[in-house]
Amino acid sequence: MRKFEQLGSLSEPEMQALWKAPVRFGHVRAHEDIVSEGQGLSESSLILDGFACRYKLLPGGMRQIMSFQIPGDFCDLQGLVLTAMDYAVGALTRCHVAFLSHQSLFQLFETHPRIAQALWKETLVDGMIHREWLENIGRRPAYARIAHLLCEMRSRLKAIGLAQDRQFELPLTQTDIGDATGLSMIHVNRTLRKLRADGLITFHANVVTVHDWKRLQSTAGFDPSYLQLQPIGSGKIGRAR
Fold first, then answer.
1. Which of 1, 30, 118, 165 stands the most exposed, by the fewest C-beta atoms within 10 Å?
2. What sign for the dihedral angle of Cα 97, 39, 103, 82?
3. What are the residue ranges spanned by the domains of the chain?
4. What one-character-per-residue DSSP string does 162-197 give?
5. Predicted confidence band of residue 8 (pLDDT cuts 50, 70, 90)
6. What is the pLDDT of residue 236?
7. For the domain with range 10-115, which CATH number is right: 3.65.10.10, 3.40.50.300, 2.60.120.10, 3.40.525.10?
8. Residue 16: pLDDT band with limits 50, 70, 90
9. Looking at domain 132-227, which of 1.10.10.10, 3.90.199.10, 3.40.50.11030, 3.40.50.360 is its CATH number?
């Protein structure tokens, strides 16, 4: 519901329709796929708990992570209109997932078009994130590249109430960070140590502690506007019209 607060204002009847939509729940173990590349889908996956990623495997077996999925994120809305997925979605931790059938979603869209508008906005924000990642990988040096990723994850997690001002959980390995930023594990390790030595962050036991948020943002050249975030409580979700 906090995620929907970022996507648009929904009335009480619209929120009730979402609550009553038929849902199948499941758990996916870490390192297993939620969605496979090339798969045709009949339902959409919503992360309720855990971390996942969209990724592609190169012919030699190397992995390119294209985005991280956190609680409140749909993994595969493109599957509503595409016949097959051009990427996979893998669980990075154990994930609790809600699966909504495409049939029930289309029925919701017909009776409550603003729900469709909210999910359309999510796909547009996904595109904005992908473009920012392309700029990050293509033009920023490693130091700013990792700083930018940490700024993004802190901002997204804070928007749904999963990050404090100075700390947030980030259950990613250095390999995961490298596959998301196009850096070797050695380069990631060296860069994280430099960020720590410069007094910006520490990253220990899957917890990031931010020591100087303004300097971290400045180092990364981070402008959160592409995330289209609003403070919790600023939306109109749940208020009848």
1. 165
2. positive
3. 10-115, 132-227
4. -B-SSEEE----HHHHHHHHT--HHHHHHHHHHHHH
5. low
6. 42
7. 2.60.120.10
8. confident
9. 1.10.10.10
Cα distance between residue 42 and residue 152, in whole Å: 31
User: How far apart, in Å, do the first and last CA atoms of the chain sit?
Assistant: 18
Of 55, 46, 50, 54, nearest to 97 by C-alpha is 46
Flag the least confident range among 5-19, 34-48, 174-188, 192-206: 5-19
Task: Give the three-state DSSP class for 20.
Answer: helix
Q: Tell me, what amino acid is at 46?
A: L
Q: What is the full DSSP assignment across 60-82?
A: TS-EEEEEEE-TT-BS-GGGGT-
pTM of the predicted structure, to 2 decimals: 0.91
